[in-house]
Amino acid sequence: MSFVERLRSYLRRAAGSRVWWSSFPEVDIGVVRKHLLERLETLEEKLESGKIERLHQEWSSVLELFVHELVADHLNRFGRSVKQPLQDLVHTAVDAQLGLPLEGTLTWRLEVQQAAKRAWMKAVDEIDNQELFESLDPHQITTWPGTPIEAYAAEIRAVRVEADRRVTPTAIGRVALELTGMDLTRWLLQIEAEQSMGFRDSWRMSRDTARFLIKRPHGAIYEHDPTAPSIRTLGRLHDLGLVVMDSSRQHNWSYTVQDTAIPVLEEIAEGEETPLRVLARALLADDRNTSLASAQPTLAALFGEEAAAAGIRQARLVAHEVRNSLVPVQVALEGLFRALEPGPPEALARYRSRIDDGLDRVFKFVDETLRVLTIAAEPAEAFDVSSALGDAIDSVAVGEVAVARSIPTPSELPPMVGARSRFVLAIANLVRNALQSSPDRKASVAVAAALAGDGRSILVTVDDDGPGVPSELRESIFARGFSLRPGGTGMGLALTREVVEKELEGKITCTVSPLGGARFQITLPTTRGGTP
């Protein structure tokens, strides 16, 4: 498991986190701990007291990690197609790891034993990794041990320790949960750079370090060289896949900056006012204010997460206004060029590419801004799909308008993790379009949801009996500014696709409905980014 995958996994399982435990609420860690203690008591008759003490100590440090790794692995491999309750599966895996006899077929016993072994190794590796890093002497090791996730998350303020010792993701951590790939790497480095205490900061890369690596993409450094970056910082960049570190030799470490890392380092070094950097500064300021308010309760009314929230709301309004103003300009220009076919005057044609490139740059910047602001505006949390669908329908189907519903009860569908209000908005857009599909009569609309046969995804369909969508336009209708309805803005379906595919990592398609009109089908994975 890569560094970023382990970080996302930790943020999801952070003790007391609504995101992780509510993703599979049927697993009660307290019940698992009681089961473990009962099994250890059973083993007291067979094992020496010293062995029991060692087992108790080992399990005390890794139990929650073990449970998380086991359930995440199981759901990624089988979805929810296996009917055995997750609580029972965890208990069986604990028995397997303790070497106790298991019930069931030989094939199933072997599967559980292997799953328990994988979860145990991952959990122990994480604990050992942190202990090794904390005692790290760069002169005594020849391979990089890896950055400890829990300590790193705390150092960059991605998690907060509450008064009752629960660890929960901050807004910084919640943004990290919603980003993937190079976007997540860019976010982590922006957060580090905004907090760095200088060139030799072991936990947070400075902008000077980025400049150093751009200027010297290959080289060797000595741990105590005050003119070189910290070896721990280089090691973390190695974990992120931006730098390759070679074994130490005579107290030196050699490194090579990957070609793909240069644009990312340049962004950090130059300190450009990108949407990610602006958001990082705002959230860090709020986090500092929140910490101050916790230390001085009288300041709580003045501080908290209100500054960033207000800034985010204002920035989203501006970005939406810019985009909505540019859409008709872009459509009008495209109409002008079509009207001048077979070819516009040479002078106009010469400027078209510059006009198109300029508009594309503005749209790209606005979309990027809205994307990051949307992620920060509402924390990702587990929500009930059934009730969200009901709220979406109720928000648009008012008065005598009726929508046929075939939606399972909450207990029959696994929860989704994301921004619930955005999901409700996306479904409401589809239902509203369906109700408006037949302007001269009342449309028949049906909304249905079900768990896929393999248990890995939830299927949602919205059907109507309108004229439908021509096959050649079933992809175009999701484009920004495209509308089949006179007076339509062309933004509803574009937003719906953004929520479904970018935020929830699902898929939306348009086909023919059994009712005779259009069917919009959404497929939502029950596991995302390698974790439930």
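The record above closes out task 2.4. Task 2.5 opens with a second protein, given below.
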Amino acid sequence: MSKGSSILKVRDLQVRKAGVLILDIPALQIEEGELLSLIGPNGAGKSTLLQTLASLTKLSSGEIIFKGRTVTADHGGFAYRRRLSMVFQDPLLFDTTVFENVASGLRIRGGHFRGRGLDHGRRQH
């Protein structure tokens, strides 16, 4: 894909919670290599948009198109999720070692890793 071609498009994206429309994005297009800032007051929908784009929040209607392919739970959803990362403002860690926290993310994404002699983060007695 050459620089300047669309990597992500959103069309008529809506998210509803308990029947209330909380996010309404008629159109959004991000070009490959483009830097984008998302700003706005508390409650404007910034986090909801990012979570929806990352498939962490289900959209009520509309579509997300990644590299020319529509993303749905049935078609390309898992492959799409494996290409994304989201870093939250507040850390979401398990009550374990740093190694196990990192390894958990890799396991969820289907990645493989080696313990580098650490026995996958467990102490040897």
